[in-house]
Design brief:
The protein is an all-alpha fold. The chain has 18 helices and no strands. The chain folds into two domains: 10-233, no CATH class; 250-444, no CATH class.
Length: 449
């Protein structure tokens, strides 16, 4: 009898990839739009409020990085176990994954209580900023269970191929957040004006609502995995599998922040204009890379399931289709960056000097867009295959090991242009290494867990 999840082994691959990826692209678009709206509301409170929320971002980003990283580990293991026909192990993975997520919630409560004020005090001595930053951070850390458990459920559903459900519930959580933001921040409809604390409360309420909706959906239908206390046990193999993918994935999510911080230190020695250019570029990058990252989210469960099922040809073909799709997306991004760079920077009300510097930067950086699709797809494929170390290595090459040394060295002779050149340089090296890593993997490691 065909099982609910067998479609990942039988459905035509291209249509399967699109059905898994497009909902994820839409989800990420909604999330990005929410982040913009949230920033607009907070900005209306003044510079101190916006600064306070910005200072809170690193700790908030740690929560998201841990939640998503460990969630990817859970999702990868579930897909592989289901593909291998190991239903008990898949059920245990989902249950143990939720238990680990609860444990992470408790850790973040302790961090919120004991770390928040000392950490934020390192970055500001202005009392109004520090007070608001602490208010915001205490709430998002001490009530982080909504974020962490929602992401865990999201990744479990992605692991079994239920992408439309995750799209709908993520969108619902974001809409709730967007609706509550002005009400709680400015005190509408009889509510008190809570300022940045209201923004934090709206965020955690949206996350909690999304998590509760996952529970409701899970209770009303039968899915490919079961989450139940009877499956809860100390299974060293499963825990190791979750963390072997989850920890590298969490580290990967923090790399862009580290990269921006270091490159800013280099660029500020030339002019603050170049720092602004880098900031605008990373905002643009979110939208340029978003569809490619949606392809990765659709690819992970497909390669994981078929890897577990021993379907080597489908694994290879899924990666090839993903490369073609991501390549087409990044080619379009390259063309837009080369043909309309001035118009793109005009969207940010850039001055003539900022626009001139930004146009040159975008044209240089975009030279690496197309080849970056190789690193992006191969890194995601390794995550789906349960090989976190290989995935992390590719990301480190793209955003750290090559880019930062190249930026230091090239900027000495070429100035800011050397920093921009470091981006495609990192992508080229990462693509070459990615290719050899996958070829090495294909030669003899195709065996399910």
């Amino acid at each position: 009898m065909e099982k609910k999840h067998d479609f990942m082994k039988t459905k035509p691959l291209f249509s399967l990839l699109m059905s898994m990826s497009v909902p994820m692209m839409l989800s990420m678009l909604i999330q990005s739009l929410y982040n913009i709206v949230d920033s607009i509301y907070v900005a209306r409170l003044g510079t101190d409020a916006l600064t306070a929320v910005s200072l809170a971002f690193p700790l908030q980003n740690i929560i998201i990085s841990v939640a998503v990283g460990i969630g990817v580990g859970i999702s990868s293991a579930i897909s592989i176990y289901l593909g291998a026909g190991k239903q008990l192990e898949a059920n245990r993975t989902a249950t143990i994954g939720m238990a680990l997520s609860v444990f992470h919630c408790l850790l973040f409560i302790l961090i919120g209580i004991f770390v928040t004020k000392p950490f934020l005090s390192l970055f500001t001595s202005k009392e109004t900023v520090l007070t608001q930053a602490c208010q915001y951070t205490y709430i998002v850390l001490c009530v982080s269970f909504g974020c962490i458990l929602q992401v865990a459920m999201e990744k479990i559903f992605q692991g079994i191929g239920e992408m439309k459900i995750t799209m709908f519930l993520l969108a619902t959580g974001c809409v709730i957040n967007i609706v509550l933001d002005p009400i709680l921040i400015f005190g509408l409809l009889g509510f008190p004006a809570l300022g940045v604390a209201g923004a934090a409360i709206a965020t955690v309420i949206g996350q909690i609502c999304a998590f509760l909706l996952y529970i409701v959906v899970y209770m009303r239908r039968t899915f490919a995995v079961s989450i139940h206390p009877k499956y809860l046990c100390f299974d060293r193999t499963i825990i190791t599998q979750i963390y072997s993918v989850g920890i590298p994935s969490s580290i990967m999510m923090t790399l862009p922040s580290v990269l921006v911080s270091i490159l800013n230190r280099i660029l500020i020695t030339f002019s603050d204009i170049y720092v602004a250019v880098l900031g605008i570029y990373f905002k643009l990058q979110t939208f340029i890379y978003m569809p490619a990252n949606g392809i990765v989210q659709g690819l992970r469960p497909i390669v994981g399931y078929n890897y577990g099922a021993g379907e080597q040809k489908r694994v290879k073909l899924a990666i090839q289709y993903s490369l073609l799709c991501a390549g087409a997306i990044m080619l379009l991004g390259t063309l837009l960056s080369l043909v309309f760079p001035s118009q793109i920077f005009a969207l940010f009300d850039a001055s003539s000097s900022l626009s001139k510097a930004g146009v040159l930067a975008l044209r240089i950086i975009s030279a690496g867009f197309l080849i970056s699709s190789i690193g992006i797809i191969y890194s995601g494929a390794f995550e789906g295959l349960g090989k976190g170390k290989q995935s992390l290595l590719i990301s480190l090459l793209r955003q750290f090991l090559i880019t930062i040394p190249a930026a230091f060295l090239l900027s000495r002779t070429l100035g800011p242009v050397g920093v921009w050149i470091s981006f495609p340089a990192g992508e080229i090296i990462a693509a070459i290494v990615s290719f050899f890593l996958l070829k090495k993997f294909e030669k003899g490691v195709y065996s399910p867990l």
